[in-house]
Amino acid sequence: MAVAFSPLADVVACGGVDGKVNVFDLESQKLVHRLEAHAMPIRELRFSRDGTYLFTASDDRTVNCWDAKRNYLFVQSFEGAAPAITWPLPVNGQWPMANGQWRRCYYAHPDGRTFVTGGADHTVRIWDVAGGGCVQSFDSLHADQVWATEFNDTGALLASAGEDGVVQFYKATQ
To answer: How big is the chain by its Cα radius of gyration, in Å?
Structure first.
């Protein structure tokens, strides 16, 4: 369901429908970690730019953070950061979503202290890795769901792309 290479080029993480994450060593091609990450399918995986953290997003409505430098020790869960990240077939032309509030497309800030998500509620939010809460929210800038988010290399500028066909730019004030 999801795959991510570490920026350190030493491992690749793979997430599955069983909610587990398998981390493979690239040189030996052997399984080196198995994380009981989520209760539902994993839809997206991302490493922080420095390779310190692995973020996992699932249909269980959470983004979990794992410390890759400390044997993938669980750091914390961000509830509401990734509600029902799912892409079911439309029913009567409508896309069903759990509570209509899924979040996806998270991207870590270059400093590794925050990450950004976009969601079905049309918002873009910045989350604090250590504190676990939302530190900045950009409401009502998109007319439809947000599909992609990313910080620039310095982390001062953030872009999001939505179903509305619009790319929005934001100054991250953290």
So the answer is: 16
**Tokens found for residue 49:** 């730019």
Portion of the chain with pLDDT greater than 90, in percent: 22
pTM of the model: 0.66
Pick 70 or 98 by higher pLDDT: 70
What is each CA distance from 75 to 32, 41, 48, 128, 171, in whole angstroms?
19, 20, 13, 12, 27
> 24: which DSSP letter?
E
Ramachandran assignment for 26, one of left (phi > 0), alpha (psi -120 to 50 degrees), beta (any other): alpha
* Closest by CA position to 99, among listed 129, 79, 116, 78: 79
How far does CA 91 lie from the centroid of its chain? 26
**3-state class (DSSP) for residue 95:** coil
Q: Is 11 left (phi over 0), alpha (psi -120 to 50) or beta?
A: beta
Question: Which band of pLDDT confidence, cut at 50, 70 and 90, is reported for residue 62?
Answer: confident
* Closest by Cα among 111, 110, 113, 166 to 138: 166
Q: Which amino acid is at 130?
A: A
The residues, ordered by sequence, that sit 6+ positions from 89 with a Cβ below 8 Å of its Cβ are: none
